[in-house]
Amino acid sequence: MRRAKREEKFPENGFEQWGGYMNAKKAKLEKQFKAGASKESHLQTTSKIFSGVSVYVNGYTIPTADEIKMVMMVHGGQFHQYYSASKTRFIIASNLADAKLKKIKGQPKVVKPQWIADCVAAEKLLDFRPYLLYSNQSKTQPKIQFPQVSEFESPVNSPRYKKLEISIGQTLTSTPKVGRKRAALDATDKSPFNDSTASAISAEEEKVMLESDDSKSSSSSDFNLFSEFKLNKKKTSPFEVVTNFPEDEEKEPSVSNEESDFEDLLDCTLVAQELRAAEESALKKTEPPLKEAVTLPKKETPTPQEDNVFISPPKVEVKIPQSTAPKPEETAPPPKEPEPHSKKAPMKRAGEENFLSEFYSNSRLHHISTMGTAFKAYVNDLRRNHSGDFPGRQKLLQWKREAGIDGHGWSGGVVVMHIDMDCFFVSVGLRAHPELRGQPVAVTHAKGNPPPTANSSSREAEFQMYRKRMQNKAGTSKSTEHFAEALEKRLSWRGDGGEASSMSEIASCNYEARAAGLRNGMFLGEALRLCPDLKTIAYDFDAYKEVSTALYDTLASLTLDIEAVSCDEMFVDCTRLLAETDTKPLDFATFVRAEIKKITGCPASTGFGANMLQARMATKKAKPDGQFHLLPEDVVEFVKNTKVSDLPGVGRNVAYRLQALGVQTCNDLQKTSLALLQEHFGAKVGLSLHKHSRGEDDRKLELEHVRKSVSAEVNYGVRFSSLAECRRFVEELSAEVQRRLEAAEKQGRCVTLKLMVKAKDAPERTAKFMGHGVCDSLSRSVTLPAETSDAKIIAREAMKLVDQLGINFSLFRGMGVQMSKLSDKKKADAGMTRFLQKSKPPSPVASTSRAEPKASTSRAEPVASTSRAEPKASTSRAEPVASTSRAEPEALDEAVLAELPEDIRQEVLREYKLARPPSASSSKSFAAELTMSQVDPSFLEALPDDLKREVVADLQASKTRRGDSKLLLPALTSPRKSKVSPKKKKRGRPIGGAKLKPIIKVPRRESSPPAKPEVVPEVKVEEEKDEGPLQVSMKVEDLLPLIKEWVKSSAEPVEQDTELMLQFLEKLLLSGKVDKIAAVLRTLKLNVMRKGSAAWIGIFEGLVERTQHLVFNHYGSKLMF
DNA sequence: ATCCTCCCCTAC
DNA sequence: TAAGGTAGGGGAGGAT
Ligand SMILES: Nc1ccn([C@H]2C[C@H](O)[C@@H](COP(=O)(O)OP(=O)(O)OP(=O)(O)O)O2)c(=O)n1
Ligand SMILES: [Mg+2]
Ligand SMILES: [Mg+2]
């Protein structure tokens, strides 16, 4: 069966104990290799130990998830990639770490991984109870044998088990597809920062602000020197400031990655907190009271109802640094901005005035991200408008002459250069702090002496708790130790609650600091413990921007075969440049780096290679302040000593999983078969690892970048005290998205809402001040019928999604709004608006893309939106309408509508719908097709009969689609976009009702609620004896309903029906319709489980077994479904 | 086979 | 206190 593909299957192996597990694993893997791509044998299982057992692995476990997956495969169990309340029977976890665990519905058993290991060792299914992670008895060693193999029926402690489903493998098709290709045109020209969100201030404005706001440069003690840079215009490269700083930077032993983890490790700590909180306040189910809620009322402004409610002129942005301020050393906490009346300045929270702009102005991640985006656009613009002249080349040639560098350039093949500024933020910052050169320095917000937060003791307690948990992890294997160690380092602050416990992150640290073990992204507290002498300096985003621009302009003056990576880094295809200037790579490097240092005062390192990977690795080797050319002949050797974690795409997770496979270096990786890699990591990732480990890289520089999505999200400071606040924040984020879309001259059709929700037992107080803490994250999206960039529409859709999720806003810890399925914004669709709004000519505005030749696009007040409909003072309460193709509801002219082509009409209807305030109960959004539950009844009623009929017909025709799939683990939510039959409409979600108490059985299906036997009766009898309705040639869509009805219609299956079904399946098999078999079995399984009938389950199991037998005989392998 | 949604991961 | 953003690759699994 072609299905074999690469799913979960492993040749038999004989690995026994987990004791010497690591070793055994290696041997086993090798064996599998040998077995070679014997795909066929893949499907075999060696035992039935885990028959009927389905597991989902959460977090890191000692047999790793991959290993458990393998074991389940081999021993007859089921491994679920996602947790499903209805299908997953056990959750394997070592601790509470992943918040997800805590909100899972269906109360699956959470069992320690050791259980799996012990079962394998014992070669039989052991009672899982001793291994329950939470049970009191769990203590430790277990091994209580359990009589027979699958007696789990015993209602250990939950009758729920009864209806527990036997899960069968799933996995049917699933081709590693990537799909989604969005046609998109190019953006337009403009300077790099025109769209940089908050900082979208014009250069002039910026300057003014800088000048007037001295607090700004702030932190830097010497404002003067600093300002010299700041006041320079950014646009071009006016960086003549020439600051020659003494060379510094001595070579440091290269350190590995930066501190990537964050919450993961943090999680453990938080988990400890959670535990404690949970223990203390046993069942304090109710909504956690918002402690600060008080201040809210007064704060609220009259809420401008205007059109531009949510636009937040970015002006704020630039100035901010001031509030933060002073450097660490010389503490001088500037006065917090005084608060009108209330005592101390209340923390600013999302949804409150100025929060967003203030947050953004201080967010380093926001800055590097938007700068990165801006530079990609900048390169696009430069390429588009380029004259063909590269002035920098004259300089290069002159330099060569003066330096006495002879001709004979490079004659090799493709040369890719990667260039990256050394400890960027620090290097820039040090220009203003020459006295700190040579010392360990880091850039961070915190300056030190945090208020006497008296929680050092509580932290100590947390730490102890954490330790306990770790030990509890039993395993104690290598990796566990590794993580434990890492964690301890980060969290083992004791005593004083001074800065040694600061949770402020270090954006960048110099090489002197790295020598002490510091890494970018590390907490200041931990950093100080590692390096007590660390000096910290403040951020200076404007300066970074200037240096970045200088970096780009420098390279752009030499060639435009550039792929921007970030504000301090890019790839350059030097092939043509070197050939045309007859220059050798390293000579070029010397020149460019010197130029950059001369202009910016900051060091950059460059690497050269035959492809992007090699160039990147070369840069790493070159740092700091160096250059390196990885020659083709040296690649093989070079790569062997490279750690896998140094490969692009190999982060914490992949590195960990590779390590579990015994792979740590590229050399190890080379010895691993492609098949195995793909088995574990998927087709693409596996192949990528395979190639990268050999220094091979197919990627081509992306010279014309096409943006695919635009988003704005904040996962900090989110603590809503009212739905209104939440809504307002969504509106602000939407306005931000609109602004960015406009800056990029794009529109989109898909709106995605992202949420971070406090995990079930996570403490109200997060480890990091105002941080998101331990959360579950989820997203929901809607595809609109027409593209838009209108913040109002975006916000409305996003809010609908919020409602739809039905989670109490007070649990939100982060929100994001994203627009995707982008297309260039043309005035084109103004056509529709015009059509419907008889009076309004399509604003011919901006016109085709490409438009503005750089120059700052207007920072634009909210307005901007091109074809904006006139907000007529319509009678209807429609909001002040805004942009794009949208007509006033009142403008709908039935006659006109009737003449429109079908597709257009649908869009109009859609728009019409959008323009209306959603009725209270309707929280649904449209998808490609309308769904009954998404229709606002009042809207429907208002339609003329014919239209009504059409809409309804449409709904019914499409109602089958889009069933909810998955039902992700954070069951924390509600029934997802459950369909709900036409008749009943979605219950309006209780706006603030958190459904902490999920129902036992989650209705995970579209149509009828599972537990509803009522409906069903005897529908039809499709299962006649004789040939009956089941035909091999039937389409799956016709077949499945029959299956469903079969199960639904009778309490107990009739034997003849079962036989008939088996015969039918056999026929399908003989006809090669394996997919249909899989589909039938899946549907059957679903419905049987839903029914929860033991009789049906038994029948089903028997059917599956017999079918599998047939399939095996026919194909030599089992069917995966 | 391919598309789509909802993740997860990675990178800066 | 602290400022935990944002874009893209890609995998799982369901629908078509
Ligand atoms: N976790 C991180 C990683 C990076 N950055 C910012 C600060 C860095 O200076 C800048 C560039 O990132 P790099 O990865 O290039 O790191 P550095 O330039 O600091 O050091 P290196 O010399 O390793 O390039 O991005 C950050 O704020 N947080
Ligand atoms: Mg760098
Ligand atoms: Mg970089």
Automatic annotation (TrEMBL):
It is found in: Nucleus. The keyword DNA damage applies. Residues 45-133 form the BRCT domain. Residues 191-200, 845-886 have a biased composition (Polar residues). Keywords: DNA damage, DNA repair, DNA synthesis, DNA-binding, Magnesium, Metal-binding, Nucleotidyltransferase, Nucleus, Transferase. It is an enzyme of class 2 (transferase). Belongs to the DNA polymerase type-Y family. PANTHER family: DNA REPAIR PROTEIN REV1. This is DNA repair protein REV1. It comes from Cloeon dipterum.
